[in-house]
Amino acid sequence: MLVTVVLLVGFGLPKDSPKQEAIGTVPPGGGTVTFEIGKADPQNPTGERFTGERFDKAINVTLNSVVFRSSGQDLTTTGTYIEMTSRVTEPVLLGLAVLAVRNRVKR
């Protein structure tokens, strides 16, 4: 889990949370307004990567991925792959650790 947190802080979290943007036009004389809501793709940070705020977000994402829930956090493409990998490997490693402790205690 610690490796996942470090990888997310370094490569997986975007520099800013993408904001939703609504674009629309009002026809002359009134009428129906149509809005198109879009969201920009998350961008990799260019400056300081290892900050307290990013560390906190990375811990939340990692803990949520261990119990197979989506974190709801916008991640970069690399961060998405890191989260998917951690969803598979972390529960397996935790299970193996429990079996190792059980086997040690049983002796």
Describe this protein with a few key phrases.
single chain, 107 residues, mainly alpha, two-stranded antiparallel sheet, 3 helices, 2 strands, 11% strand, elongated
What does this structure look like?
- The model has no long low-confidence stretch (mean pLDDT 77).
- The chain is elongated and about 85 Å long.
- It is mainly alpha-helical.
- The protein has a two-stranded antiparallel ribbon.
- The longest helix has 30 residues.
- It contains 3 helices and 2 strands; from the N terminus they run αββαα.
DSSP strand count: 2
Please give the radius of gyration in angstroms.
20 Å
Strand content: 5-15%
Q: What pattern of helices and strands is seen along the backbone?
A: HEEHH
Rounded average pLDDT: 77
**Helical percent range?**
40-55%
Give the terminus-to-terminus CA distance. 28 Å
| Number of H/I helices | 3
Strand order of the largest sheet: 1-2
Low-confidence segments, ≥5 residues, pLDDT <50? Answer: none
**Largest β-sheet summary:** 2 strands, antiparallel
Structural class: mainly alpha
Principal-axis shape equals elongated
SSE layout and pairing:
Blueprint: H1 2-12, E1 20-25, E2 34-39, H2 52-66, H3 77-106
Antiparallel strand pairs: 1-2
Helix pairs in contact: 1-2, 1-3, 2-3
Characterize this entry briefly.
By secondary structure, the chain is mostly helical.
